[in-house]
Amino acid sequence: MAGSVIGVLFGLFLLFLVGQAFWRQIRFLLSIGLRMVLGGLFLFLVNCCAGSMGFTFGINPASIITLGLLVFPGFLLLAALKFLV
């Protein structure tokens, strides 16, 4: 009985250590994922508001990733590419 309790406690301790080791990476990926979702929503809103003036962005994985990783400079980059092409 005592060996089982010690084994369970040791397993929980190992799970805690593994969680601590990967927490930064998981938090980083979650923040980028949240930024990508918000970036896609922002592109959708820009397309809805400025679409009547003929200013639209393509909502595709490349533009969402660019906006998710670079945020405002990414939006400026997409706008510059839109005007150049």
What distinguishing features does this structure have?
rod-shaped; mainly alpha; 85 residues
Q: In terms of topology, how is this protein built?
A:
Blueprint: H1 2-50, H2 61-70, H3 72-84
Number of strands: 0
So how many helices?
A: 3
List SSEs in N-to-C order.
Answer: HHH
Shape: rod-shaped
Number of domains: 1
- Residues in β-strands, percent: under 5%
Mean pLDDT figure: 88
Residue share in helix: over 70%
Separation of termini? 72 Å
The profile of the biggest β sheet is: none
Give unreliable regions as ranges. none
Cα radius of gyration in angstroms: 22 Å
| Overall SS class | mainly alpha
Brief sketch in words of this structure:
This protein is an all-alpha fold and 85 residues long.
Explain what the structure shows:
The chain is an all-alpha fold and 85 residues long. The protein has one domain. The protein has three helices and no strands. Helix 1 crosses helix 2 and helix 2 crosses helix 3.
